[in-house]
Amino acid sequence: MPSTARYQSDKTGDFEVIHPFHPLCGRCFELLSHHNNWGEDRVMYRDGEGRVRSLPASWTTAAAVDPYIVLSAGRSLLHPRDLHALVETVRTLLSDNAGGVR
Prior knowledge:
alpha+beta, SH3 type barrels, two-stranded antiparallel sheet, elongated
């Protein structure tokens, strides 16, 4: 039976946690596997006690670089998908308040 996972990478080596608010930010771990798990791209590693753990790959250096981020080179504060989500939220709020007080 074919896998429903997008892919399973054969990447090896180490990765660093780069999410600024994660308690492991700045720490490096050995990459055990990098694949689609629980509906998102994740990396598997062993913590300091030897337990296998996982993190979203986007929180690490193991993630593929977003071409938009590279091309914008820090000149854009928001990613287009974030702007789109903001527009949808504002539309929802405005339509919910259409009959209310302005």
